[in-house]
Design goal:
Elements: H1 3-16, H2 20-31, E1 35-38, H3 44-49, E2 58-66, H4 95-106, E3 110-120, E4 124-133
Antiparallel strand pairs: 1-2, 2-4, 3-4
Length: 138
């Protein structure tokens, strides 16, 4: 069995049984900024599968997103509460897309290759986005 397959199995095991490892990491991640550049991917197997290479021109960025729903102002005129249209309003863009869009704004000179899920708790969800320098050649 190759190394990346073993790493993938370990991550599957962590997500199923032993989330304590990630909970400890998430405590540290909560105190960091929302978008932070990291030295190496948290999930190497996933990053490699999505196009990451450990060479100049490739970077990994961890993005923290809030898991709150979309907020809508409450209408002023009289309506039945059922027809107010305040609760249960969902954004049309999923978390991964939102993470990618935020990173694009922060790093305009980089090209987004892909993104992958890392962890979520009650308040936040974390993704890691793989970026490649547009000017660098393979």
């Amino acid at each position: 069995m190759d190394m990346y397959k073993q790493i993938a199995q370990t991550w599957r095991k962590i997500y199923k049984e032993n989330l304590e490892v990630l909970r400890i990491r998430a405590e540290k991640w909560r105190r960091e900024k929302a978008i932070i550049r990291i030295d190496k991917p948290t999930r190497l197997d996933r990053a490699r599968r999505l196009g990451y290479k450990a060479k100049k021109g490739y970077i990994i960025v961890r993005v923290r997103l809030s898991r709150k729903g979309k907020r809508v102002k409450r209408p002023r005129s009289g309506r039945r509460p059922k027809h107010m249209g305040v609760v249960k309003i969902k954004p049309n863009v999923n978390y991964k897309e939102t993470a990618v869009n935020r990173v694009k704004e922060k790093y305009p000179n980089m090209e987004v290759l892909n993104a992958y899920y890392v962890y979520k708790d009650g308040k936040y969800i974390w993704y890691e986005v793989i970026l490649k320098d547009k000017n660098m050649e393979d």
